[in-house]
Specification:
- It is built from ten helices and no strands.
- By secondary structure, the protein is mainly α.
- The protein has two domains: 40 residues; 126 residues, Alpha Horseshoe (Serine Threonine Protein Phosphatase 5, Tetratricopeptide repeat).
- Helix 1 packs across helix 2, helix 6 packs antiparallel against helix 7 and helix 9 runs antiparallel to helix 10.
- The N and C termini lie far apart (55 Å).
């Protein structure tokens, strides 16, 4: 047992050394010091958005979101996807950005990529909103993955607040789809 622990400790040390070397190389590739790179990395891990680290204003992010949404509703889906992807990179904790990215991808038939973005929306939304799961389920259906769609719909039904009108609507839609799936429709 002690031998296994020592081997695990040695493996961890080798892994940590490799990470440190990789951080140094990555920092060099970005043209920053390893210390600055590590500071930015830690800030990102603590939930600080990249736009804040870079000193961008929130109004810039909000204006780009408005434009992305207009592109989406105007049917310019590729442009909307590009802008939502940018927003997800710079303001990664904002659920509407992930939902916009997912919806843009879904509307283009990029169902696998849409599901990934819906998953990020669900995570950043602290798993409190049924919408990302419902829309993921719709994408699973488009991919003919009925069992995954069932799981997504069941999950949507366990989340949210039935007193919230938006959640209640999504939960009703999820229930209808789930009933159809269970009845073999």
């Amino acid at each position: 047992m002690a031998k296994e622990t020592k081997q695990q400790d040695q493996a961890f040390e080798l892994f940590a050394d490799a990470i440190k070397k990789n951080i140094d190389k990555t920092a060099e590739a970005f043209g920053v010091s390893p210390e600055l790179y590590e500071e930015v990395r830690k800030a990102l891990l603590e939930g600080v958005a990249l736009y804040e680290i870079l000193g961008m204003k929130r109004s810039t992010i909000d204006a780009r979101y408005t434009l992305a949404y207009q592109l989406y509703t105007g049917g310019k889906l590729e442009e909307a996807e590009t802008l939502f992807r940018w927003l997800c990179s710079y303001a990664n904790c904002d659920v509407p950005h992930w939902m916009g990215l997912a919806a843009s991808r879904q509307a283009q038939g990029k169902y696998e990529e849409a599901i990934e973005a819906y998953q990020m929306a669900a995570l950043y939304g602290a798993l409190e909103d049924p919408a990302p799961f419902y829309y993921s389920g719709v994408c699973f259906l488009k991919l003919n993955r009925r069992e995954d769609a069932k799981v997504a719909m069941q999950t949507a039904l366990t989340l949210g607040d039935a007193a919230n009108a938006d959640h209640k609507l999504i939960m009703a839609q999820a229930q209808a789809l789930l009933t159809g799936l269970e009845e073999g429709a």
